[in-house]
Amino acid sequence: MSTFRNPVGPQPSSVYWRRRLLVLLGLIAVIVAIVLIVVQPGAGSSSSGTETTSSGATAKAEDDIAAEEPKADPIEGAPCEPGKVIVEAVTDKAGYAPGELPRLSFSITNTSAVSCEYNVGTTQQTFRVSSGDDLYWSSKDCESAPVDALLQLEPNVTVTSDPITWDRTRSAPETCEQERPAAPGGEATFNFTVSVGGADPAEKSFLLY
């Protein structure tokens, strides 16, 4: 008969069975501990899942904040952006008979969505008349006491300046107080160029007969 199934000794068999049971339980506990240390169930997946969830939640929160931020609108009455201002050269006629003097002006339009202020004073204006590469006349040559003039420009409303008259002569700073040579006629083509502040300059052609 097996001594494992029927313990032999001076003590009652129940004592030996309890001892074996305790040894067996201890052995099982050691094995389970070793398995837990090696495998670490759920450690990797739990950590990764937490990080992913946290990152996703953070990104969503940032998107929500960005969506709620108000978009900056142009400020009513602020200075006009030169890129939003269109200047056009204006002449009162397409051609001028001998002795008839051209009247030159400009129009200006604010293309933004709100009204704004733009300096249209003589400090910002330059009128030029040329023929090809030859500059005949400039408003800056004999200008005196230029001034600033802030104009409130409403959206998409065109404003036209008062005209100035070109006397059909060639200008130069040193000839302001003396007689100047006349520009040629005979159906000669001239170009009127105007710039006002930082907006793009404009040009228009006309004829002198």
List low-pLDDT spans. 1-5, 45-55
Broad structural category: alpha+beta
- Number of DSSP E strands: 11
- CATH topology of the largest domain: the name is Immunoglobulin-like
- The protein's oligomeric status is single chain
Q: From the alpha carbons, calculate the radius of gyration and give it in angstroms.
A: 47 Å
> Into which percentage range does the β-strand content fall?
25-35%
Average pLDDT number: 82
- Count of structural domains: 2
How far apart the termini lie comes to 143 Å
Based on the structure given, which CATH architecture of the largest domain is correct?
Sandwich
Helix content: 25-40%
Written overview of the protein:
The protein has 209 residues and is of the alpha+beta class. The protein folds into two domains: 13-68; 82-208, Immunoglobulins (Immunoglobulin-like, Sandwich), CATH 2.60.40.10. Helices cover 25% and strands 28% of the residues. The chain is built from two helices and eleven strands. A five-stranded mixed beta sheet has the order 2-11-10-5-6, with no helix packed on it. Strands 1, 3, 8 and 9 form a four-stranded antiparallel beta sheet that branches. It has a two-stranded antiparallel ribbon with strand order 4-7. The protein is rod-shaped, with a radius of gyration of 47 Å. The N and C termini lie far apart (143 Å).
